[in-house]
Amino acid sequence: MLTSKLRAVRGAAVLLAAVLLLAGLSVVGNGVAMAQTRHVLRVGSGVADVGTLDPHFATNFGEYPIVKAIFNGLVDLPAGTVDIERIEPDLAERWTISEDGRVLTFYLRRGVQWHHGYGEFTSEDVVFSFERVADPAVGSPWRSEVANIKEVRALDRYTVQIELHEPDPFALLRLVGYHSGFIVSKKAVTELGDAHRFNPIGTGPFAFVEYNPRRNVVLKANDQYYKGAPKLAGIEFRFMPDTATRELALRTREVDTADGDSEQIWVDRMRSQGIVVDLVGPGNGYFIQYNMTKPPFDNLKVRQALSYAVNRDEIVQYLGPSIARPLRSPVPAGYFGHTTEGIETYEYNPQRARQLLAEAGYPNGFEFEIYISEATSYLPFAQLLQEQWRRIGVTMRLNVIDHASYHARIREDVNGVIFYNATRLPIADVYLSQFYHSDAIVGKPTAITNFSHLGDVVDNIDALIEQARSELNPDRQKELYAEAQRRIMAAAAAMPYAQRYSAVARQPYVDLGYELVGPNQFDNLFEHYIYNEKTSIQR
Amino acid sequence: MKAYIARRLLSIIPTLLIVGSIVFFVMRMASGDPATAMLGASATAESIARLRAQLGLDRPLVVQYLDFLLDALRGDFGNSYATGRPVAEQIFAAFPDTLELVFWGMLIGTLIGVPTGIIAAVRPNSIFDYASRVVALLGLSMPPFYLGILLLLLFAVKLGWFPVISTPQPGFFGRLHAVFLPALSLGLVQASFIMRSVRSSLLEVLQEDYIRTAHAKGVPPARVHYWHALRNALIPVITVFGLYLGTLLAGTVLTETVFNRPGMGRLLVGAIQQRDYPLIQGGLMIYAAVIVVVNTAVDILYGLVDPTIRYD
């Protein structure tokens, strides 16, 4: 029996709900009110937040496209490509390279202004920027990328000379606006100090306006931009770590572009709703390294057996045919120097795997346990290999931990098998130096990510990598890289199995202002869309 | 009473130090390193070691702990490793958004949960009772973030009434509009908890002798139910309110992610992924403080609802 008081309570609840609902409806559509000729592009960025907007410190996945819109390098790659043969002028109008390949002279563009009244860009800023990245006290994570720079000299206000320790055929590529190559304002960095971290002053098409933690970064058009005023009024990067939310926001047009989910089902679903999905690369290389100091992985036959038991087609099938392809070499396809010619690629052969295991003294297989990250780019691959290895009698137990812990544990050298995936500057040198040079072996002060101990316990390809690094003849250089890849695979130090592209999505009315080269080419280094002065919204 | 409140509030200080200490050691026991997280995978061991020294992480654990304790006693949570900004500033920027979400979530939960629980208890084993219990069971089993995605699909994508991105907008109505869906997803789950507590508590009270006596002497049923019974039934319900606050705060973590609100939940998840020790310690200590304060308030409320309770 409902009494009057109860009715009153219920009535109040209904009334409140109605008020809330009306309040909601009254503000629906506010977002549409800003219809102007120049639109603000809203980007659904797949990160929860950024840690810095200083280009010499930006390492986080979501920081690159923001930094790239604010800053320039001396030179740049053509928009939408990673075509290392066609490096373009940017802050430098032109350049010359000495015959011995050690001295690069850059003639700077005149009259380029720093954002927010920080004056004219000059050679002083260039010298300051490279010295800043190289200074150990500054602590830039990209310091190793400028290790080959001996000196940077300002010849006059608009001329800069960069002298290298060793000739480097990729010296220009290392100077593009990417990580260490971005030029910062000497005056701004000196005056702002720590505050520069969230008050970046650049020369690029968009100037920084505001940063709201975990919410957004707002940029506005730099109408004085030397390549022309941007077609967009500005860009808002919204931090949206949840894939489902980004997808829904893109569908309701609350964002115009969004970082996607690199899964076939996601790509197909978005495309079926009229949303453009682009697959950008150079693509993440997926591989395992065997820790050759730990039994039974110190036994070549065991490593070969495990490699023969990996079925790459099955893994690519899992990822989706338009997202991934098999990887057969320690250097991903599309990177300068990549080859599969003359390489032992360990094509799937379970009989051979069983035979090798028996020869190694494990006719009934063996068991081992590893730590593995819970991240979706790690755990499913470990599970796939777990199942594939089970078929030859090898049991891999997985101890699942969070991603940060995983990175710490593998650097403590605890795993016998290390799962890894990485995108790097697309030249063989970077991959080989970080993953296969003996300096990079975990545990050393110079350690990066060589988990296999290749170079200390089995073979050593340091000389090949170093020789290739300063080899100016591209054909000879490719031969050296090919030899390095052959020896890594002959030692079965690693088993590369897949290469996966990043999916990014946009409403069809977003015109990037450049063409993305198809997924079988390099697209861009950033695994995101890059927004420049030509990017526009066509509505 | 005043002495009691003062004592309870003072007890916050040791509670916070204990919570802070537990967090301090648990975070350091979990492997993972702030310097590696900040510098990325390509950094060399040398540069990681240099950053660790800059952050003071190379000092003996005891020294780090004493430093943390002394700073915490002064109310200084330090600076976040990841952003370099003061932890207190980041927490105070994020907390209002989370409090707003918790407030509306609790309100919606109460407005739905209490009346439903009452009707179910007053008419036990009726169709309404069964239906509300089944719905409550669904609510209890459904994680708020999943419910959140379903609500987004219906109200934001299909109907277009609310935004997918529930970031607070300027103005009271802007905020209300943005908070409605996330609060509803928290509130609906909360309502299930509250409904079940109200129902079982009221059912028990309705069996008491004094209720039968009240009916026997001809007090109108409504007055018996809502004056005599409900007041007594609310005592255990108020207790669980305090306890639910913890669940609700935990629920905001995923709700804020799904609805893209920049509150404390997202702040802490990011901090844990980045191993941003000062931010994790500060954030969890604030959570602990809120839970202690609210539970103190709940204890005080007892006195108001139940005059037999005395505070000495």
Give your account of this protein's structure.
The complex is a heterodimer of chains A (539) and B (312). Chain A is of the alpha+beta class and 539 residues long. Chain A has helices at 4-27, 63-70, 123-134, 186-192, 243-251, 264-272, 300-308, 312-319, 350-359, 379-390, 403-411, 428-436, 462-469, 474-490, and strands at residues 40-45, 75-76, 88-89, 92-97, 103-108, 149-156, 159-164, 206-212, 216-221, 234-239, 257-259, 276-290, 324-326, 367-373, 395-401, 417-422, 494-506, 510-511, 536-537. In chain A, the strands form 5 sheets. In chain A, strands 1, 8, 9, 10, 11, 12, 13, 16 and 17 form a 9-stranded mixed β-sheet that branches. In chain A, strands 4-5-7-6 form a 4-stranded antiparallel β-sheet, with helices on one face. In chain A, α12 (428-436) packs antiparallel against α13 (462-469). The longest helix of chain A has 24 residues, at 4-27. Chain A starts with a helix and ends with a strand. Chain B is mostly helical and 312 residues long. Helices cover 78% and strands 0% of the residues of chain B. Chain B has helices at 2-10, 12-29, 34-39, 45-55, 61-73, 87-122, 127-141, 144-158, 172-206, 209-216, 221-258, 264-274, 277-305. In chain B, α2 (12-29) packs antiparallel against α13 and α6 runs antiparallel to α7. The radius of gyration of chain B is 24 Å and the shape is globular. Chain B starts with a helix and ends in a 7-residue tail after the last helix. The mean pLDDT of chain B is 87. Classes of the chains: A alpha+beta (539), B mainly alpha (312). At the A-B interface, α1, α5 and α11 of A face α3, α4, α6, α8 and α9 of B.
